[in-house]
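Module 6 notes. Inverse folding takes a fixed backbone as the condition and produces residue identities as the prediction. Think of it as a translation problem where the source language is geometry and the target language is the twenty amino acids. Below is one complete input and output pair. Work through it position by position during the lab.
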């Protein structure tokens, strides 16, 4: 068993299941930073908002 927030797929840990890549020119709503080449979000739906335009 892993501690909360550790283990599992990178996309889930980053709250970025679509694996949106980080770009310093973008400041996506809900984005909290980066983990390697991928964006991190405050909530998991943040990545879906970008794609769906909600």
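Target side of the pair, the amino acids:
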């Amino acid at each position: 068993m892993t501690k909360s927030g550790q283990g599992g797929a990178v996309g889930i840990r980053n709250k970025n299941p679509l694996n949106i890549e980080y770009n310093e020119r973008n400041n996506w709503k809900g984005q909290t930073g980066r983990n390697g080449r991928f964006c991190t979000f405050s909530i998991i739906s943040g990545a879906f908002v970008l794609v769906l335009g909600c």
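Reference fact for the lab report: The chain has a mean pLDDT of 80.
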